[in-house]
Write a structure and sequence with these properties.
- The chain has about 260 residues and is of the alpha/beta class.
- It folds into two domains: about 160 residues, Rossmann fold (3-Layer(aba) Sandwich), CATH 3.40.50; about 60 residues, no CATH class.
- The protein contains ten helices and seven strands.
- Strands 5-4-3-6-7 form a five-stranded parallel sheet.
- The longest helix is centred in the middle third of the chain and has 18 residues.
- The chain is globular and about 60 Å long.
Length: about 260
């Protein structure tokens, strides 16, 4: 790393350009990080993630494992709370006295988009390396005119099967959830898995519902209880979720999808 110049604490190439790869932790960004470290070790790449403080233990372990594979640290981007600590999902819920929902998605804006935009502004001029595959439609960038987005997976002609092969070759299992452990957007089966695997986190989410008088679920979305305590009681009674077996089989294959809150 000593051969690379720095300004504003950010690594730059000989032309002063910063090279940045945002990691959601999902299969595509994980594969891209590995391939860039292997195919282009000469690039002074900065690897970023945006923790919310509500990651599952397996997600934290995934980031740490990936650091060992690419041989570089992953920068954890967070805003600073007035109390001196990082802004997390929990501090936002306490500060707002409310839970995020599809109308108030301040969690993604404040925990992911804002700190990343601030970093990209500091890094200008910069190239952002995005894990967009050749078999996906083009996405628009959200980080401004000073950022040039590049798509190596697309340039290499790599599709989803190629990405899974990279992960298999490196013995990597992508975590079932790469976003928050609790999210208004998640499905019934994901709440059921949270209760089964991390009952302490599920109970903490129930506590937050009690404290705010709101729910992390959407009323009228389905026929299940809206509040998490009632939902948990249904799960514990043995009630099955539609599509549960197919989802469990997919998880067992290490191919369970995650959706929101990725860079």
């Amino acid at each position: 790393m000593s051969k690379w110049a720095q300004s504003n604490g950010i690594l730059r190439d000989e032309k002063g350009v910063a090279h940045i790869l945002g990691l959601s932790g999902g299969k595509d960004s994980t594969a891209l990080a590995i391939l860039m470290s292997e195919r282009h070790p000469e690039i002074p790449m900065s690897y970023l993630c945006t923790p919310t403080g509500d990651e599952l233990p397996e997600m934290i372990g995934h980031w740490e494992n990936l650091e060992g594979i690419i041989g570089r640290p992953i920068v954890r981007l967070t805003n600073t709370h007035p109390d001196g600590g990082p802004v997390t999902l929990d501090t936002l819920i306490r500060d707002f006295g409310a839970l995020p929902n599809f109308r108030q998605r301040w969690c993604t804006r404040m925990l992911k988009i804002q700190p990343t935009r601030a970093y990209m502004k500091k890094a200008h001029p910069a190239k952002l390396y995005v894990g967009l595959r050749a078999d996906e439609p083009t996405r628009e960038g959200i980080f401004g005119d000073g950022v040039c987005s590049v798509f190596p997976l697309r340039e290499w002609g790599m599709g989803e099967a190629d990405v899974w092969k990279v992960l298999e070759d490196h013995k990597i299992t992508v975590p079932r959830r790469t976003d928050c452990a609790r999210c208004y957007h998640q499905r019934l089966i994901e709440w059921k898995f949270l209760l089964e695997l991390h009952p302490d986190i599920y109970e903490d989410a129930c506590r937050q519902e009690d404290a705010t008088g709101h729910t992390l679920r959407t009323p009228g979305r389905d026929t299940w209880p809206v509040d998490l305590r009632g939902l948990g009681a249904e799960f514990l009674s043995g009630r099955k979720v539609q599509g549960e077996k197919a989802y469990r089989d997919r998880v067992d294959r290490g191919q369970s999808p995650c959706r929101v809150c990725s860079l």
